[in-house]
Amino acid sequence: MALSKKLEENIRKAGEIFPVAVSFDIITRELYIGETRAYWIGINGFCRVEILQQIVSDLQNPQYMKDAKVEDLQRWMNAKLGYVQASLADSWEQIAGQVVSGPSVLFVDGFDKAILIDVRTYPARSVGEPETERVTNGARDGFVETMLFNANLIRRRIRSPKLTFEIIPVGSESKTDVAVTYIQEAVNETLLTKLKEALQGVKASDLTMGARSLEELLIKKRWYHPLPSMHYTERPDVACSFLAEGHILVIVDNSPSVLILPCTIFQFTQSPEDYYKNPAVGNYYRLVRFLCIPLSLLLLPVFLLITAYFPETAKEWNLLSSGGLPGPTIIFYVAAVEFLIVLFQYSASVSSDRFSGSLSLIGGLIIGDIAVDLNWASPEILFYAAITLLTSISLASIEFGDGLRIYRLFLIAATALFGVWGFGIGCVLILISAATTPVFGNMSYFWPLVPFDWKALKRILFRYPTAKAQPVRKRVGGRKR
């Protein structure tokens, strides 16, 4: 809808669109620019007060405003409005979307255009190291909930004129800003086009949970795909390393997590810790992390299979020091301990730091000892459960570890019910589920293993020295060239 040249009509329309007289945070001011009437509207808390005060003070200064009447709005704005981020808007849709995002608007009598003054500022927490991606060495900054801060953290590391941030609003009600970030001439143009079209075609009223909601809107997953389809990071150095390789970042306003596209399963095995140590140590830690994946998934199910269905083998291998236990008892023990693992890990993740030590004491000493005394578990099962817990929390990605936990629960249930056949069929179903995990752009989740690309695979398996690990120029269809 177009604006009116009459200021009274624009004031009335603004009162219909915005709850001016009801909402306390919407503030207005009637002004005079020389002899020309004007009307300003903005949101309290989204505007830098000191800049607005200077602008209003200049507009009210008779020595500064020598023109008695504004005749050309564009020329007046260029000559008299002493602020860089100012532009003209001629529709109510544009004005409404901008005002609720932070910029304020100035209506001038006699013109069917308004001046948007972008003096926005958002409440923001300080930049600190992400809790879930800590490193012993390296940078200590992390993304926050303000998009501009996140863009600055990336721009600070990649000072290339080809670095691009494209804003696409998502959500019919929230109009959440989503920034598609990439490096020109290094990005996969086909994937970039698909992403833009998908974001523009998202049908949702708002993004209530930020980046997580956007992932679910972009990728349709079934319940049997627990592994993550997108890689998240809160570290600017990690995001910039993927950018340099030709990946695309998706930054969602109000969310500290940045999405990385395209996504493969091997991204969840990498950690910035590998690159803040010398290559030999980094390769060792990466090898340990790779071994943690099968251990986290298979240790308890294999222990259950051998002890419950092959007691002679378990006795020969000394898997149970307390002697033979009935199969149903072992199944019950494993199920109870698995529940305790999930309960302990969840409680530790959602509790504050001051309770973490208490939880460790309770989980490691009180619950473990009492569970053995009450015959709810055996020392051997608690030992294997502790190893499983350590391998789970050693993985670089929490989302990937949660997906493996769902697989492990399924495999324990299948093994407990059907023995060897249940274990074998469960492993096959897990492999099929992982291989068919949907990824944006219909790319292979197991690239560069499937399709096989040894040149790219060895860069993932091994941590190369910096001189040899410089990013390739372009990624096309999942392959690097």
Structural features, described:
- The radius of gyration is 29 Å and the shape is elongated.
- Helix 9 (279-309) packs across helix 14.
- Strand 9 (248-252) and strand 10 (258-261) form a beta hairpin.
- 46% of the residues lie in helices and 13% in strands.
- The longest helix is centred in the C-terminal third of the chain and has 38 residues, at 398-435.
- The protein folds into three domains: 7-117, no CATH class; 131-263, no CATH class; 289-435, no CATH class.
- It is built from 15 helices and twelve strands.
- With 481 residues, it is of the alpha+beta class.
- Residues 474-481 have low confidence and may be disordered.
- It has helices at residues 7-17, 49-59, 73-80, 92-99, 147-157, 189-200, 211-218, 236-244, 279-309, 311-316, 327-350, 353-373, 379-393, 398-435, 454-461; strands spanning 26-33, 36-43, 86-89, 104-108, 114-117, 163-170, 176-183, 231-233, 248-252, 258-261, 475-476, 479-480.
- Strands 1-2-4-5-3 form a five-stranded antiparallel sheet, with helices on both faces. The protein has a five-stranded antiparallel sheet with strand order 6-7-9-10-8, sandwiched between helices.
